[in-house]
Amino acid sequence: MSQSNALNLRFRKAVAPTFVPFVFGEPGIAEASVKVEIDQSGKVISATTIEASPFRDRSFEKAAMQWTFEPCRNSAGCRQTIKFVLRIMPKGTPPEEITTRFTYPAEVEVRSPIIELTVADEPIPVRTPE
User: Fold this and answer.
1) Does position 1 have pLDDT exceeding 60, yes or no?
2) What separation in angstroms does the CA of 12 have from each of 42, 80, 100?
3) H-state helical runs in 11-130
4) Do residues 108 and 82 make contact, with C-beta atoms less than 8 angstroms apart?
5) Is residue 120 scored above 70 in pLDDT?
6) Which CATH superfamily is domain 3-112 in?
7) d(CA 78, CA 52)
């Protein structure tokens, strides 16, 4: 496929990735851009992460493979870049703001409240089988 096949096709079905905790006790943001190849029916036939920060995870590509787009009118297929954002929201964020958001042409943002990391004050006793 040539670069000229890169279009902004409208998605028909968009799937968010599973939220992967990447920082604890504070807000944060992780982003990944996934290049997808789309056949003439609008089905994603391949997905490759082309940029990721601060980490790379296969869940982005797995989610991208489940997307469907409007039909591609190019006999050689089409390309699209999907941007995935994982955002840990600041403390005090209203619950209605902690939701997944889909934006045209191909962006999805998955939001989470701050993930607190708790440490036990005392070790948990190990039970031996009787």
Assistant:
1) no
2) 9, 13, 17
3) 58-64
4) yes
5) yes
6) TonB (3.30.2420.10)
7) 22
pTM of the model: 0.82
34-63 residue pLDDT tens: 999 999 999 999 999 999 998 888 999 999
Give me 115's structure tokens: 């993930």
DSSP state of 121: S
> Where do we find the tokens 């496929």?
1
Tell which residue, 15, 87, 89, 7, has the closest CA to residue 40. Answer: 7
Between CA 94 and CA 105 the distance in angstroms is: 27
**What's the pLDDT tens digit per position in 78-95?**
999 999 999 999 999 999
Measured CA to CA, the distance from residue 33 to residue 105 in angstroms comes to: 13
| SS3 state of residue 60 | helix
Q: Residue 77: name the closest of 36, 130, 116 by CA.
A: 36
Q: What are all long-range contacts of 101-107, with beta carbons under 8 Å and residues at least 24 apart?
A: 102/11, 102/14, 102/16, 104/8, 104/10, 104/11, 105/8, 105/9, 105/10, 105/11, 105/80, 106/8, 106/11, 106/14, 106/67, 106/80, 106/81, 106/82, 107/82, 107/83
